[in-house]
Amino acid sequence: MRIGIAADHGGFALKEEVAESLRSFGHEVVDFGAHHLDASDDYPDFIIPMALAIAANKVERGIALCGSGVGASIAASKVPGVRAALIHDVFSAHQGVEDDDMNVFCLGGKVIGSALALELIGTFLAAHFTGAPRHQRRLIKVRALEIDKNGS
């Protein structure tokens, strides 16, 4: 799978570990930065380009990290076509994909350890959207909000 990954300074160390692990499992990882630790960087500078790549189908799924995961989730969700969520539990890691077609997984590098992060990300990547009619109906309503908001 082609996976985009991005983090600010708060998620930098975990991003590096996750990217290395994903590559070892045969995934193609596209790293949108940060590429070095800089305490003054801003999460939108890395998260938004990754989210735009998701929306343009240049990567299949995305992983966005910051200190808490909250800022990454907020930023990524502003891009039409991106369905990002802050995830710190196994159920939400797969259910978000299965029911809501989540395509960006957000987590906090200062909140969660690497072992759990890797387990959750593995669960996210293994999950598939069910396409059930009720879920498709709900996604149509979400897409309508994006159209109304952006006038397209």
Descriptive terms for the model:
6 helices; Ribose 5-phosphate Isomerase B, Chain: A; alpha/beta; globular; 5 strands; five-stranded parallel beta sheet
Structural class: alpha/beta
- For the largest sheet, list the strands in their spatial order: 2-1-3-5-4
Can you identify the CATH class? Alpha Beta
- Overall residue-averaged pLDDT value: 95
Question: How would you characterize this protein structure?
Answer:
This protein has helices spanning 12-24, 44-55, 70-77, 90-100, 114-126, 133-150; strands spanning 2-7, 28-31, 61-66, 84-86, 104-108. The chain is an alpha/beta fold. The protein has a single domain, classed as Sugar-phosphate isomerase, RpiB/LacA/LacB (Ribose 5-phosphate Isomerase B, Chain: A, 3-Layer(aba) Sandwich), CATH 3.40.1400. It has a five-stranded parallel β-sheet, with helices on both faces. The longest helix is centred in the last third of the chain and has 18 residues, at 133-150. The mean pLDDT is 95.
